[in-house]
Design a protein that fits this description.
It is a single chain. This protein is α/β, with parallel strands linked by helices. α3 (about 115-130) packs across α20 (about 500-515) and α8 (about 225-235) runs antiparallel to α11 (about 265-270). It has three domains: about 20-140 and about 340-535, 3-Layer(aba) Sandwich (Rossmann fold), CATH 3.40.50.740; about 140-330, Dimethylsulfoxide Reductase, domain 2, CATH 3.40.228; about 585-695, Barwin-like endoglucanases (Beta Barrel), CATH 2.40.40. Helix content is about 30%, strand content about 15%. The chain has a seven-stranded mixed beta sheet with strand order 5-4-18-17-16-6-7, covered by helices on one side. The protein has a six-stranded mixed beta sheet with strand order 24-26-25-30-23-27. A hairpin with a 4-residue loop joins β25 (about 635-640) and β26 (about 645-650). It binds ligand MGD (2 copies), iron/sulfur cluster (SF4) and molybdenum atom. One ligand MGD binds next to α17, β17, β23 and α24.
Length: about 700
């Protein structure tokens, strides 16, 4: 394998061991020590600097939980590892022999380490030769990624260190509820406000985050694109456009100026429900701040027009002259633990490692050389996450699915339909450490090790590559995902290409990423440990060269576009894919609560978290509740064109009267959501669909 890197000779053991690691959950990747089942926060990691949220504090409970899987299951029956892997490999071979390579699909996750994400993508392309691979990151930040690529030529969640937020003078956060989704993030916003900076939050709900804000824009779900166009219209009209910056660092302003001219404030108020005076105030706050940031979360992004919505917010940031400055910029507040790294190493349908495009001949040649295969043997781009899940078991679709690090039976849009697709497969193989709803439907369940029992790297929301050390011994019986991939590869005749130790995989990843946008080749486990993380891109500087320092602020001097300039792209507002009508008169939006994580597979098995947040609820305004005859604690049924679900009513004046909110941590919310996809990012419309709500007197939980 032609790997030649001038890395310093390894000084650590092959698998770095030690108590200093990072949280298993979100993209903040709070630093923590894990020792003897006890968790203490680390002070040396800037993202959390000594803080953790409730999920982080209790994360060790699942390591020793009785619900932990330690034996492979074949059709529900405990079997030895060899039997489970032999069965899976034999079925894969038979299905591919009969239907071709694309009969087997792979689905990954943004919680997987860089090493796992890399090896999974390689496994799909080399051992299976399938084009049918994608991952749950499509459901997460893909709209922001598509918009950032279009505007800046590169997508790195926050293109600045998180501590820069504390140095800003104003922040607009559109559709993010960080007080619940990454609580230590609030410290950075508080640092900004303590210096006199001001916070504007756009959310249909007065969330704990919106309560911290100086100004809350209570936007109608699905209308952020109009809001951003309106803010830009006002910013230009009131002289806040930074013409010097626009001339020096961007292209496309004139077209965008023309395109927003029709988005006068009163028109935007009619669409968004945000009063003109508040829009003007928001623009004043941003426009008058010496340093300002525009940030987006899933509330603005998870729409069938998410890419254009984020583009409109980026246009606003560019017009104000923000991206590239210190303490200024645009950023996407992503997501899963390795939501950033997970999109760089090739588990996405159209990608190869290093954030390379799979349809780029030079990229194919480079990666094929690292993998020791012919570029012509690498498959082309496959289906996006929802399209892949929706094709399973259908004529012409994959017959088998290998799933690592996702629970789509709960988290996919229109999940009832996806559960039927999963049931129609000839083979479903799931690697997990608990019996998630998806694993419960699998033919083969492979019990895997957990975060604190493994080593590997994670790239946090700032683009900082971090090291997870092995802090605890795995239980007998569990195997790492890398070992599982190797075990399957051996049985498919590719064992020698699939190392199972993380450092070897990382060194191969470095070589595969070298020269790509997300270049990790200058990053080593030793450097990460010594520097508490290294920002990509960080190319290898060759023998004898001074090491590259990493890139905390990649847009400081130029943008990675062909002409070095950021691109403003004109976009137009359009209504939600499914608007309200007589039959389905309220907007349903979905999201998160503090105590639970994602599909809940992990946190619903941790007692303090289920005590804090025991069940699915439906948040609705007192006016709507009164009209429906619903009181707090009553069961209500929510119906959409796709299904119906029941939850406990939470009556609260903090939500818009035309909107109800459900968390998706339990089965229910996604029986309702609309899988309409963004044309560019293929992001589903999780954040808005039309629903009907009624009192439910029969006590039935999920109908
Ligand atoms: N506790 C907890 N923390 C998490 C996670 C978790 O599951 N639980 N998951 C992690 C992951 S993977 C992610 S992606 C992040 C997500 O982090 P966030 O983006 O902060 O989370 P959400 O709750 O999905 O959505 C944020 C807000 O969007 C609002 N919203 C809904 N519709 C709209 C709309 O149309 N416009 C606007 N402007 N706002 C809208 C919702 O009311 C909600 O308050 O959190 C990470 N952290
Ligand atoms: N309605 C609605 N739906 C949504 C969203 C929303 O806002 N609203 N948000 C979307 C977003 S942003 C996201 S990110 C997705 C997330 O939703 P999912 O993709 O379902 O994510 P998780 O629930 O984290 O599932 C991870 C699964 O893998 C297991 N696991 C964790 N780590 C590992 C590992 O290292 N290896 C292996 N083999 N398994 C592991 C866990 O036990 C769990 O069963 O949900 C999306 N769905
Ligand atoms: S904020 Fe995120 S990374 Fe930090 S402790 Fe909570 S879940 Fe873990
Ligand atoms: Mo996410």
């Amino acid at each position: 394998m032609p790997i030649s890197l001038s890395a310093p000779a390894p000084v650590m053991s092959q698998v770095p061991v030690g108590s200093a690691t990072h949280c298993p959950y979100c993209a903040l990747q709070c630093g923590m020590h894990v020792a003897g089942g006890e968790i203490t926060p680390r002070e040396d990691v800037p993202a959390n600097a000594g803080a953790l949220c409730q999920k982080g504090w209790t994360a060790a409970e699942l390591l020793s939980s009785p619900e932990r899987l330690t034996t492979p299951l074949l059709h529900g029956r405990p079997v030895p590892w060899d039997e489970a892997l032999d069965y899976a490999a034999a079925r894969i071979r038979a299905l591919q022999a009969e239907h071709g390579p694309d009969a087997v699909a792979v689905f990954g996750g943004g919680g997987l380490t860089n090493e796992k994400a890399y090896l999974l993508g390689k496994f799909a392309r080399v051992a299976l030769r399938t084009s049918q691979v994608d991952y749950n990151g499509r459901f997460c930040m893909s709209s922001a990624a598509a918009a950032a690529n279009r505007a800046f030529g590169m997508d790195r969640g926050l293109p600045f260190p998180i501590t820069d937020i504390g140095r800003a003078d104003a922040v607009l956060l559109a559709g993010g509820n960080v007080a619940e989704t990454m609580p230590p993030f609030v410290r950075h916003l508080s640092a900004m406000r303590a210096r006199g900076g001001r916070l504007v939050v756009a959310d249909p709900r007065l969330t704990p985050t919106a309560r911290l804000a100086d100004l809350h824009l209570q936007v109608t779900p699905g209308t952020d694109l109009a809001l951003a166009l309106g803010l830009l219209h006002i910013a230009i009209a009131e002289g806040h456009a930074d013409l010097g910056y626009l001339a020096a660092r961007t292209t496309g302003f004139e077209q965008v100026r023309t395109s927003v001219s029709a988005w006068w404030p009163e028109r935007v108020e009619r669409i968004t429900g945000v009063p003109v005076a508040q829009m003007r105030e928001a623009v004043r706050i941003l426009g008058e701040a010496p340093r300002a940031m525009v940030l987006t979360g899933r509330g603005a992004e998870q729409h069938a027009k998410g890419t254009d919505t984020v583009t409109a917010f980026i246009n606003l940031a560019l017009t104000l002259g923000l991206p590239g400055g210190e303490g200024s910029g645009y950023g996407c507040v992503t997501g899963q633990g390795n939501g950033q790294g997970g999109r760089e190493h090739g588990q996405k349908a159209d990608q190869l490692p290093g954030y390379r495009r799979i349809d780029d001949p030079a990229a194919r040649e480079h990666v094929a050389a690292v993998w020791g295969v012919d570029p012509g043997d690498l498959p082309g781009p496959g289906r996006s996450a929802y399209e892949l899940l929706d094709a399973l078991g259908t004529p012409g679709g994959p017959r088998a699915l290998l799933l690592f690090g996702s629970n789509p039976a709960v988290s996919a849009p229109d999940a009832g339909r996806i559960a039927r697709r999963l049931a129609g497969l000839d083979l479903l193989v799931v690697s997990d450490f608990v019996l998630s709803e998806t694993a419960a439907a699998a033919d083969v369940v492979l019990p895997t090790t957990q975060w604190a029992e493994e080593a590997g790297t994670m790239t946090n929301l700032e683009g900082r590559v971090l090291l997870r050390r092995q802090a605890a011994a795995p239980p007998p019986g569990a195997r790492s995902d890398l070992e599982i991939l190797r075990g399957l590869a051996e049985r498919l005749g590719w064992g020698d290409r699939f190392p199972a130790d993380p450092r070897t995989v990382f060194d191969e990843l470095r070589a595969a990423s070298a020269g790509g946008l997300a270049d990790y080749s200058g990053i080593t486990y030793e450097r990460i440990a010594a520097e508490t993380g290294v920002f990509w891109p960080c190319p290898d500087t060759g023998p004898g060269g001074a090491p590259h320092p990493g890139t905390p602020r990649p847009f400081l001097d130029r943008f990675p576009t062909p002409d070095g300039r950021a691109r403003l792209v004109p976009v137009e507002h359009r209504p939600a894919a499914e608007d309200v009508d007589e039959e389905f008169p309220v907007y349903l939006t979905t999201g998160r609560v503090l105590a639970h994580y994602q599909s809940g597979a992990q946190t619903r098995r941790i007692r303090p978290l289920t005590e804090a947040s025991p069940e699915v609820f439906v948040e609705l305004h007192p006016d709507l509740a009164e009209r429906l005859g619903v009181g707090p604690g009553d069961l209500v049924r929510v119906r959409s064109r796709r299904g119906s679900a029941v939850g406990t009513a939470r009556v609260s004046a903090s939500i818009r009267p035309d909107t109800v909110f459900m968390p998706f941590h339990w089965e229910g919310a996604n029986l309702l959501t609309n899988p309409a996809l963004d044309p560019t990012s293929r992001m589903p419309e999780f954040k808005v669909c039309a629903a009907a709500v009624e009192r439910c007197d029969d006590g039935e939980r999920v109908a």
